[in-house]
Structures are given as structure tokens and as C-alpha cells.
Write a structure and sequence with these properties.
Elements lengths: L3 E2 L9 H10 L18 H18 L5 E7 L1 H13 L6 E5 L2 H14 L4 E5 L1 E4 L2 E4 L13 E5 L1 E2 L4 E2 L10 E4 L16 E5 L9 E7 L16 H6 L9 H16 L2 H22 L3 E2 L11 E6 L5 H10 L2 E2 L10 E4 L6 H18 L2
Parallel strand pairs: 1-15, 3-4, 3-7, 7-10, 10-11
Antiparallel strand pairs: 2-12, 5-6, 8-9, 11-12, 13-14, 14-16
Helix pairs in contact: 2-6, 3-4, 7-9
The structure holds pyridoxal-5'-phosphate.
The site of pyridoxal-5'-phosphate has 12 residues, from helix 3.
Amino acid sequence: SAKYNFCAGPAMLPQAVMQKAQKELIDWNGLGVSVMEISHRSKEFIALTTQAEKTLRELMNIPANYHVLFMHGGGRAQFTNVVTNFLGDNGRALYLTSGQWSSSAIKEAKRIAGEDSIDEINIVETVEGLHQVKLPDLHSVDGDYRYVHYCANETVDGIEIFDTIESPWPVVADLSSTIMSHEIDVSKFGLIYAGAQKNIGPSGLSIVIVRDDMLNLPSLVQSSIMDYTITKDNDSMFNTPPTFAWYLAAEVFEWLKSVGGVGAMEKLNSDKANLLYQCIDELPFYKNGVAVQNRSRMNVTFQLVDNNLDEQFLAEAQAAGLVALKGHRIVGGMRASIYNAMPLAGVQKLVEFMQAFANKHSK
Ligand code: PLP
């Protein structure tokens, strides 16, 4: 019977894409070899990357004054790259913290630029036991910043920010775990980045969408392969790119387009998340600690009220074909990651399992 994989990342990819890729491992594009075995500068591969960018631009409605870069190093490489690319000549930046990943981004920024170059505002408060985001009025914050950084979806904590950040400085956003899960207005951002291994493709790759004028900011000395301008000037091929990851990402973009694009996905993702949160709210057996307006639609964190049953829950879920539900080691509990590739049927099956488990163990 079908298995549903709720891993936070690397996460499940669309089944149709994986089946196509499996066939193409033997013969891609009639070349008699796989895409992994050809030159990144071949006309066939360039056709692939051109199409990938075109489809991504359509899917996200990316304005013409933005560059799309395919880079190495996953999400964390961009924690470094935004600092080295934008904070030359003693530049300063403001970081908003909302959980584990935004905190990691700050740590990295301070490591490179120095503690004094980075200011920080914690934007999560606890109201009646629930975590909620309170965005500060950035127009009333004093400071000369090159950018303000935030993480739109905290993968570990299950906290998502749906509001647009209004800011006098360019907004740099970590969209690793929420990109293409709902519609956004790209023109509100100076730079968007995302590690690929949730809604895009295999790990290692990161996608950067950067507004043209951001490339004029003074940078620190850095590795050429991590320089946004050099990457742009070389069509993301200053060195050999991760070609297989790029190919799979291109296939995921085509798949997403074929199922109706980001708008259709937004509807499905909100149905999936609502179903699961409804189950958690209705059964006193489970709880979630995030205020409704900031509950992540991608990473649904929840706890068993009696955490002595955690191991048994995970074992029985696994036996029922529901895998990788264990929460992140830092926060414990459970986490169901339900990215674009997770079908509604997977969430329905999880909900049925949770109801049955609660029935069996409620006193
Ligand atoms: N940012 C967010 C929101 C993430 O969820 C992750 C990884 O899960 C990262 C950054 C780091 O990505 P990577 O492991 O590709 O460096």
C-alpha cells in the first residue's frame, strides 16, 4: 500500500516527476545517456535551463528587473551570501527572528560581518500560551540598513508569516520551505532565496531571485561561485552546476504548471493544512502551540498531550505507511511536512490514523 512521506526535507517529490526521471536515467532527450552525463554547456542542457527559468518566472510571476540564479550550497549558503554580497564597506543589516532558521541566519551573519553590523528584532510573542508573530513598524525603526532579513516559514517551529513585510529597506527573505506554496508579490522583495529540497527538487541547489539594483551594493571579498553578479553574468554556470538537481527542479516546475500553478497549489495546501489543524483542534488528545494566523501550511507541528505515547504513535504511524512524523530534535513532538507534492489523500490518511490512535488511547 502507498506510503506517505512527511519528511521536512529532503522531502517527497511529485510521483509523476520521479517516474519520468526514472525512465530518463537511461535515456534523456533521445541522447542515449542521462542528463547527469552530458556537458552543462551542451545545447540540450542550455535548452533545459532556459526553459526552467522561463517556467519559474511564469509560476511566480517574476518581474523583468529580477534575475533568477541557480546556486550551490542549499539554504545555508545564502545565509552567508547575502552578507558577503551586500555588507561590504561596513554595511549594516537588520534581522527579524521568528524561530530556529531565522536565528541560524543571524548567527551566520554575525560570524561574517561581526556582531556590531547586525541588529535583531524578535518578532514572536506568546499570547495565552500561543506563539504569534507581531511585525514591528519598520518605518519607525531608526537605522541605516542595506536590507532586512526574515524567514517566511519556520520549518522547525511551524510558524509562517503570510503578511507582506513593509520596510524602508530592501526585504531579503528565506523562502526555503514555503516557495511556490502560495502566491506572493515578488516585487515586494529585494531578494528571495530557497534551498531546493522541499518544494523544488533535490538538496544542494538553491534558487535566488534578486532585484537588479541589489547587485550594485558593495560586497565583501568572497568566493566567485557565491557572488551574485558573477553568477548572473555567467548564467549560473561560472563553474559546473549541480546538473541533475537542476534537471529535477525543471521537471518539478513543469509538473507544478501542469497541475494549475501556484494558485491551484495554494488552494490545495490550504485545504490540506485546514484538515490537519481541524483534527488537532477537535481532539483533546493533540495540541498545537501556534496562533491560528501564523500556523504553517507547510510544516504542521503538533504534540501528543501525553508525550509518553510519542514512540508508540510514531511506530504505529510508520506501520500504517505514514513516515517521518517525528518533530525536529530541538522542539520534540510531531511534525507533518505537507509540501506541494503531498496529495490530499496523504493528509486524509494521517487524520484517520490520528483519530483512530486517539480513540484507542483516550481514557
Ligand atoms: N532555511 C530554512 C527555512 C530551512 O528550512 C532550511 C533547511 O531545512 C534551511 C534554511 C537550510 O537549508 P540547507 O540545509 O539547504 O542549507
